[in-house]
Structure formats: C-alpha cells, structure tokens
Amino acid sequence: MSDTKLKPCPFCGSKHLELDCGSVTESLGGFYLQSGEIECMKCGVSGPSVDVSNEKDDLNALAASAWNTRAPSAKEQGE
After folding, report:
1. What pLDDT, on a 0 to 100 scale, did the predictor assign at position 77?
2. Model pTM?
3. How far apart are the first and last CA of the chain?
C-alpha cells in the first residue's frame, strides 16, 4: 500500500481495508492497463475503481486517493 493514510469505511467505520487489484492487460504494442480499488474487509464495500495505463503509475496511491475523496462526515466536521 502507498504511504497515503486511508480514511475508515464510510459505511461501517472499519479500518480493515485492502487494495483489490484487477487483472493486468497487455496487448500488442506494449499497452498496459490495470485497475484496482480499496475494499472494506468488514462490510465488503469497495471503490471507486481506478485504472493505470502504464507501469510507472502508482495504482496504490491512486486507489487510496479515490477512496479518501468524499464529503466529510459530521464527525469529521466537528458537529
């Protein structure tokens, strides 16, 4: 996983999260595509899915950033 700290699951609050990597596709010409998403191991919610199109892209960091991008909860806002 990347150095990005993951927010807890927005549905159950669990911090037991893992990166779920999809298959790697390589076609003629060396095109590379991999998808992945963060999944909560407690309630099973996942997403959003992200894709990388070359081996230099950091799937872990992109998936973590997508997982953490959400409206702040009332608790996070101090309400």
Report:
1. 74
2. 0.75
3. 31
